[in-house]
Structures are given as structure tokens and as C-alpha cells.
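Hello,

Our lab assistant flagged a job as stuck in the queue for most of the afternoon. It eventually completed. Since we weren't sure the result was trustworthy after the delay, we are filing this so someone can double-check. Below is the sequence as submitted and the structure that was eventually returned. Let us know if re-running is recommended.
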Amino acid sequence: MSFKEEKREKIKRYILDKVDMNQKDLARRTANTFEISLNTVYRYVRELEEQRIIEKRTAGMCLWKRWKRFV
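-- returned structure --
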């Protein structure tokens, strides 16, 4: 696994952990923690949505029930 892939996986894992904890300001916190842009965070969130790992809702995001088994 290359450094870039490893960092991407860390960022996605961070997002999943924070979503599971119902963390507020998820995008901003992720961007600050990894020193990346908000657009980059939103791209990772979209990827996770497309993979049906997380689901956006009006009040935030949540993990799909089937994914929780693997977290």
C-alpha cells in the first residue's frame, strides 16, 4: 500500500469513527486533523456514500446498518 493509499484509508477510517460517534462538524474536524481541504473531505464522504457505507441525512450522516458489523 502506497503512502497516499494509506493516508486515504486513515482519513476514511477517521470519518467512519466520527460518524459512528455522531461527531459534530465532521468535515471541518477531518480537514483540520489531516490538513486537507473541505472539498477533499466531501469527496471521501461521497465515495463512502456511493459504496453505501454511510448515508447522509438531514441531521448529519450515519453508518449503514450492514457496515456496522465490520467497523
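-- support follow-up --
The delay was a queue issue, not a problem with the job. The result is valid. Residues 3-20 form the longest helix (18 residues). The chain has a mean pLDDT of 81.
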